[in-house]
Structures are given as structure tokens and as C-alpha cells.
Amino acid sequence: MAFDTFVFILVSGIVLGGLYALMAVGLAVVWTTLDVFNFAHGAFVALGAYVAWQVTQFAPGPQGFVFATLAATIFMFVVGFLLHFCLIKPFERSPNIVLLAVITTLAASSIMESSIQLIWGPREKQIEAAVSGRFEFFGAGIGANDLLALVVALAALAGLALFLRRTSTGRAMRAAAQNREAAELMGFNVAILFAVALGIAAATAALAGAFIGSLRFINPTFGADPLMKALVVVIFGGVANFTSPIYAAFILGIIESFSIYYLGLYWAPAVLFALMIAVLIVKPEGLFGNRQKTL
Amino acid sequence: MKYAPPFHHSNGLFPVLVALAVLLVLPLVFTDTYVRHILILVFVYAILASSWDLSLGYGGVFNFAHIAFFAIGLYAYGIGAKIVGIDPWIMILLAPAVAVAFAALLAMPILRLEGIYVILVTIAAAQLVLKIVVSQSDFTGGTSGMVMLPRLTMGDYRLTSDGRIGYYYVALALLGLSTIFLYKLERSALGRAIKALRDNKYYAISRGVSESRIRLFTLCASAVLPGMAGAFYGSYVRVASPDVFGLTFLTLILSVLLVGGVSTIWGPIIAAFVVTIFAEVLAEYGAWRDIIIALVIIGVVLVYPGGLFAGLQELWDFADSRKTALIAAWRRRFRSASRAALMGSGDRMISTSHGDISVFDTGPGPGKPALLFIHGNSSCKEAFHNQVKAFSEKYRIVAFDLPGHGVSRNCDPRADYGYEAYAKIAAEIVEKLELGKPAVFGWSLGGYVALEYAVSGYPISALAICGTSPLGTYPDDMPAAYIASPHMELAGKRFHSWKEKRTYAAKTVPSGAPNAELVRQSVWRTDGRAREQTVAKMKTVDWPRQIRLLREGAVPFAMINGTEDPFINHDYCAAFGYANIWRGSPQNVDGGGHAPFLANPDEFNRVLGAFLEEGGSASEQ
Predict the structure, then answer these.
(1) Mean pLDDT of chain A
(2) Which residue in chain B is spatially nearest to A100 when comparing CA positions?
(3) Checking CA distances to A231, which of A187, B6, B198, B445 falls within 20 to 30 Å?
(4) Chain A closest-CA separation from residue B135 CA (Å)
């Protein structure tokens, strides 16, 4: 294999990893704080992408894309924040919370996808990218938009890390995730903190959705694929730490790039799922995980 | 000992027979192909959802690859029948084996996992299978799927002919087989092991249930039916498409299961009808339909987590308590003469803090001490008619129907059905009728009520119990105090089937004996919730307090049992160590079963009379 091909595969793997990280981190935040798996995450991605598309219809051009991404992120934060009180809060004391949350989030996902179809129709759409053109990078051509997606994803993750570690709200969220009862006794409003966690998850999903929408076509049900990818990433990396799904996302992105090159488009996802099951058999808490969960 | 009557003796028999008859006749009424098509889909969904319940509900294994079992059955049928060319009927039998093989593979990674991880791994495994199916487009047709799968034929007859009537009956037969399989499995030793692992894993393991084997079995057993349903579905729609792996289909079946009620076999079957027909009615609304269905699902789990089956049970419960209340009202109104004939005089209603109670009273007389009778579970005050005749010369006799029994009214189950409430009712009657310090006789459940009455500090001069084993601790003493029998389960069972009512009554007084009809009729009338509550509330009674009373001997006390009482353990009763028991030990009346005062009244009355004479005077010394 030529060196430029190798660099190309590696860089597209890293770009893929950046998007996966953005999708998986929201899933991991919800899982570690609320202790449920959010099956509506794919629909969050899709809804965020459609909101961003709608905004670019009013405001075209690079500024429009920036504006659309911000609008979609904020809108989805509010949606996620409110959904906590409809989908998860009513069941938090139920012994069946895991199963009930699965069905309510699946139902919410169905509602969001159907709403998208009602509002925007089933036809495929694409968001106008903020930047175009290609960079030469060690002989391999890399799309500028791909690079922008990677940079923004990394910046968003860094921002989220700062929020969780440096701000009082972020620390309160981590406290609630580690020990809910203790956090309540310290006077934190855990319901609000949990709602913020779901809001953050939805906001990161929207950001990912906006970039996916600018890289390929979107339709009302396109969220299912990102959801599955995020699921693999989260299990592969484990949720012991805020950073572990991020490492896992980049590893999986690179693995996927290379297996697409060597095994073809159809076998690559099978490799990922098989890898994930293998990790779970050997190390159920994930590659970077330990038994204790912290945010 | 677990009480598990065969299905044809349970309450479910009649509704199931009716439903089966309706389903058998339905295609003859609706000759429309579309209606039959919907019903065939309903049967397939019902099989899928109810068999999913085996792992998800009964096993507590959150297996989200269940739909993949169906998909594997479907593709196995497609490949086997179309590409390999095996006979479709044989493929319907072979496809489940492929699904079971996959289930056995799947069991390996999830053995070490719990809860949400099981969900994720099973979803991932289903996706893995999907990706493999899609990648093998030479065999599976890739993303576009397989078409023109062979259809089922019987000789030269196509099952699609005559408006798909053949497929309809094959699907119905599959649903019937699946239901029988699940019903039998759930009640077998294996089924109990599956439920034990779910309810208390470590206790089950410590009692010798192998977690890995049972989980493997649970998954494999739950894969048989979806595998078969998948193959049947393939032969019916004649298309195998990768859509069946998707979240949409999974959500549909999961909603059938949850709307029906988890850990019930019948719930998902009923819900399959409701959800599928509901979805078909809304079909023309497109995306709105999915929104409405999703909202209904959220609404059901939010407002009614038990699902439709719990709703049906509540409906049944309501109907049952209305029925018993109606019987009581009718007897109160129209049968007072026959009661009066039996007891010598009529009864009247007295309102207490725990509802309106029917009380029989021979009335005050000079120098007549009061004697209060408390009857047992699912009985009535007329059970003491022999004693009324024998003792009314010397004593003022008072007997009352407990709430929910006899001609008393049905009451609030939580507040009014219980030992404390019953004792308080007795005390209020004693106060209202100005009985002073009565001697109290309690039979069976009434014996516990009498004990509770005595320890609560209500006025009492002597205490006699019959057919009641005093308990030190509950439930530890139950195995020693009582002879285990299915009857013990019936005593706390809310709904008795007709057969169970008869069995229960016959254990008290053998059928054909003089008072059998009286006992049977009172079982028929009793509010099932009273039975359920009083047995459930045995957990909350302060048993040591009752034992202290008997061991300290503050109240003259007698125990009079039937020698052939089928329930109580005579040795346990004799060895209890009472301080002040009349004649030094429990007295046994020959020839009496659980109700010696009904079966052998002369002998019983002699013993009770002697106690009232001697015991009463002993207390005055």
C-alpha cells in the first residue's frame, strides 16, 4: 500500500472517529448519569440535522451553517431537557427502569422520526457545507469540510470536558452521577441536573447531525445508523470515564476505515460488531473501563 | 408445596375456550382476504411477543435479539426452501433449529453480563447478523432481500387459495401450540427455576439452580417459536427482507409485549389483537399513526405499567366483588326467613367503623353470660346454628358475619379485611350490644381474630379456639403448625374457579354431609379480596403478643379440635406450652373434621359447655 493511501485511510478514520466520539459522548453522558440507555439518540441526531437544514434554508452560506449549527444545538438542548421529564423522570423509582426507559426512548424516537417525516417529508436532503475544497496532506487529499467536522468535534468535546470538570453545574452533574442520594442530600436538584445531562446529549447529537448532514444525505430515519455506531463505541470503550468512549471512537473510526479498504463496505460493520462482542466477552466493562462508573 | 391446578380446572378455561371458538369461526364469517391477512399477522405477532416474554419477562434476560430469531427463521426458510430446495413443511421444522443454534451462541457472551449490557450486546448481535445477511447477497439477496419464496401446499391444494383460509388455520394452530408450550414450560420445574433466577439470583443459585444452564435453556427455548414463526411468515408473505432486523419492527413487537403486560402469557396475545388492529385502523394516517402508537405506548407504561392483562384482571376483580356483593344483598333481602329458621331468630345490621355487619343475637336475659362466636375464612355465622340451639338456654349468644362474608357488606379490602379490623368489629359489637365480658369462641381464621381480640385488651371472660394453630413467628411456624396442602393456597386465593370453590368447601365439610350446602354457599358468597387480604396480612400480625397471652394464661383458654382436622398439626398444638389451658391440653372431638361443631355437634357442645362452666368459674376464683 502506498504511503498516501495509508495516510488517506488514517485521516478519514480519524475524521470518522471524531464524529463517532461526538455521537457516543452524549450516549455515555446519559448512561452514566441517568443509568439508562437512550434509544432516542439516533433520532436526536436526525432531528438536529433537520433543524440545521431548515435554518440554512433561511441563511445560506458559511455564516448560515455556523448559525444553523448553533440553532440546532440550542434547540436540541431544550428538547432533551424537556424529554427527561416525559421519558425518564416518571419511572426513576421503578424497579423496571432499564426496560421502561428502553421502551419510552424507542417510542420517543419513533415520534421524532415521524414528526420529521410529517414536517420535512421523506425526501433526502443535504446541508450546504460551510467550507469546500481539499487539502493536500502527505500526498492524500482531505476534504476541508471533513477537517472542519473533526476540529469542531474536538473543540466541542474539549468544551464539554471543561464544563464537566471546571464549572459548578458540571461538577454537580458528576456528583449526581456518582452518588445520586448524596447529591440530593447536599441540596442539588438532581432532576434538573439529569435533565441537563439529557439536554447535553441531545445538543452533541445535534452538532454531530449537522455535520453528518453536510457530509452526506439525510432522511428521517438516518439516525439509526449513528445510534448503532455510538452504541458500539460506548460498549467498546466502556463508560468508566468521560474520555474512554472518545478514545474508543477514534480507534473504531480507524479500524472501520481500514476494514472498509481491505474487506469492503459490507463487511466493515460486521467487523465492528464482532469486535464489540469479543470485547464484551473478555472485558464486559469495556476496553478502558473499570467496574466503577463516573462521569 | 406449590398449588398448581391443571388448566382445565382454572378460571382461564372458559375465556380461552370462547376465544378459541370465536377464532375458529371468524374466517367463516369474514371471507374478506384482508381481514384474514390481518388476523394471520396478529397470530404471528402474538407468537413473537409471548415467546419473547419467556426471556424478557419470566427470565429477566433483556434479550433484544429476539426479533433476530424470527429473522433467522425467515432467512433460513428462504435459503432452505428456495436455494437448497427443501420441502417448505420440513423447513418450518428445521428453521427453529437454526434459530436455537444462534440462541445458544448468543448465550455465551451474555452469560457474564447483567441488565443493560445484555440489551446492548443482543442488539449488537442482531446487527451483526443483519450485516452478515446483507453482505452475503449471493444467498440472501443483500439489501433488497429474497422474493418469491416457496409457498405452503397440501398435496395440490395451495394454502393461499380460498382467501388464505389454509394459512389462517395454520397460523392459529401455531399460536395454539406456542401458547401450550409456554404455559406448560412456565409451570414446570424449569419454568420455576427461570423465574427463581430472575427474582432472587443468588438464592436460586445457592439452592442448586445453575445460572448458566438455565439461561442457556431460556434463550434456546425462547428461540424455537420465533424461528418457526419466521419460517411460516416467509412461506406466507414469500419475501425475506432485512427490514425485519430493524428497530421499527422490534418496537412494534416490544409494544405488543409491554401493552399486554410483562410476565403474562395471555397479555401479549390479547395485545397483539389490540395493537395490530389499532395500527391497521390508523393505517391511512401515515406518520401520524406512528406518533399516536408511540404516545399510546408511553401512556400505557406511564399510567398503567401492568398493561392490558392487569387491566383485565382489575376488571375481573371488580366484577367478582360486585357479584359477591349482589349475592349478599339478595340473601340479606330475600333469604332472611331461611336464616331465621336455621338460627331460631333473625339477624340485623349494625354499622361499625369497619362497615355494616350482620349480627345475630338471642337477646339479653337475666343471669345469661354472653357467648360470642367468630366464624372462619369463607364461612358465615350460620355455621354455628347447632351451638345456638344448644346454648341459648343458658347463654346470650351473639354471632356475626365478618365483612365480605355471609350477609355483611363487602368493604374496603385494605382497611376492613384484616385481623385488627375484625377484632375491632367484634369489640364494637360487644360494646353496642352491652355484652359485658363475653366468652369468645373463634374458629379457624376466627380463632386468630379471637386471639387478636383478647390481646387487644377488649373485654373477655374466656377464650376458646378451634381449628387454629397458635403461631409464634410467621411464616416460620407455618410448616409445623399446619399440614401442607393445596387448601392452604386456596385459603388466600382471590378468585376461586367453580371447582376450587367446591374443593375448598369440601375440605371443611365433606360434600354430602348435612351442612355441606351451607358451607358451599358461604364460600360462593365470600369476597375474594377478604381471603387474599387476611392471608396476606398474616405477615403483619403481632404473633408473639398472642403467644405471650397463651403462655402467661391471663385468660381461661381452651382448644377444641376435630381429631380428623385435615389442616392443623395436633402434635404441634399439644406441645405448645400453654400456661392456663383447660384440662391441660387441646381437647379433641371425635369424628369432626375442620368444623367439629358442624360434623359432631353433640360431642362438641358437651366439651364447649363443660369449658364454659369450668373455665368461666376458674376465672372468677
Answers:
(1) 87
(2) B301
(3) B198
(4) 5
Three cell numbers written together for B414: 385494605
Q: Which residues of chain A are within 8 Å of residue B131 when distances are taken between CB atoms?
A: 266-267, 269-270, 273
Mean pLDDT of B540-549: 90
- Rounded to a whole number of angstroms, the distance from the CA of A112 to the nearest CA of chain B is 8
Residue A263 with chain B: CB contacts under 8 Å = none
Question: Residues of B with CB below 8 A from A273's CB?
Answer: 124-125, 127-128, 131
A293 confidence band (pLDDT: 50, 70, 90): low
Whether residue B305 contacts residue A96, with contact meaning beta carbons closer than 8 Å, is answered with: yes
One-letter amino acid at B621 equals Q
Burial of B25 (0-12, 13-18, 19+ CB in 10 A): exposed
Quick check: is A164 in a domain? yes
Mean pLDDT score of chain B: 89
Interface test with A, best of B131, B249, B252 (most A CBs within 10 A): B131
Closest C-alpha to B172, from B276, B40, B70: B40
Answer whether the bond into residue B88 is a cis peptide, omega within 30°: no
Asked whether the beta carbons of residue B287 and residue A231 sit closer than 8 angstroms, the reply is no
Say if the Cβ atoms of A267 and B131 lie within 8 Å: yes
Nearest to A235 among B124, B293, B297 (CB): B124
Of B64, B131, B297, which is closest to A273 when you measure between CB atoms?
A: B131
Interchain CB distance below 8 Å, B291 and A110 = yes
Rg, C-alpha atoms of chain B: 31
Per-residue pLDDT tens digits for B460-504:
999 999 999 988 888 888 888 888 887 778 888 888 888 888 888
Q: Summarize pLDDT for B321-330 with one digit per residue, the tens.
A: 999 999 999 9
Cα–Cα distance measured from residue B413 to residue A16, given in angstroms and rounded to the nearest whole number: 62
Show the cell assigned to B307. Answer: 398493561
In a domain, A2, yes or no: no
Taking only the tens place, the pLDDT of each residue in B137-173 is: 888 888 888 888 888 888 778 877 777 888 999 999 9
The minimum CA-CA distance between A42 and chain B, rounded to whole Å, is: 11
> Would A258 be classed as within a structural domain?
no
B283: distance to nearest CA of chain A, Å?
13
A103/B109 touch (CB, cutoff 8 Å), yes or no = no
Contact B556, B619 (CB under 8 A): yes
Tell me A220's DSSP state: T
Confidence (pLDDT) at A136: 74
Cα A181 off chain centre by: 28
Q: In this structure, what are the phi and psi dihedrals at residue B59, rounded to the nearest 5 degrees? A: -85, -20
Q: Which of A190, A166, A168 is nearest to A178 (CA)?
A: A190
The answer to whether the Cβ–Cβ distance between B297 and A98 falls below 8 Å is: no
Q: Is residue A250 part of a domain?
A: no
Instruction: Please tell me the distance in Å from B109's CA to the nearest CA on chain A.
Output: 5
Task: Give pLDDT tens digits for B351-402.
Answer: 999 999 999 999 888 888 999 999 999 999 999 999 998 998 889 999 999 9
Residue B344, CB-side half-sphere exposure with 13 Å CA sphere: 19
Range of the domain at A153: 10-128+141-221
Find cell 424449569 and name the residue.
B190
For chains A and B, count residue pairs whose Cβ atoms are closer than 8 Å: 126
Q: How far is A130 from chain B (nearest CA, A)?
A: 32
**For B259, which residue in chain A has the nearest alpha carbon?**
A103
| ipTM for the assembly | 0.85
Q: How many domains does chain A have?
A: 1
- Give the pLDDT confidence of A109-160 residue by residue, as tens digits: 999 999 999 999 888 988 888 787 777 777 767 788 888 889 999 999 999 9
- Whole-structure pTM value: 0.83
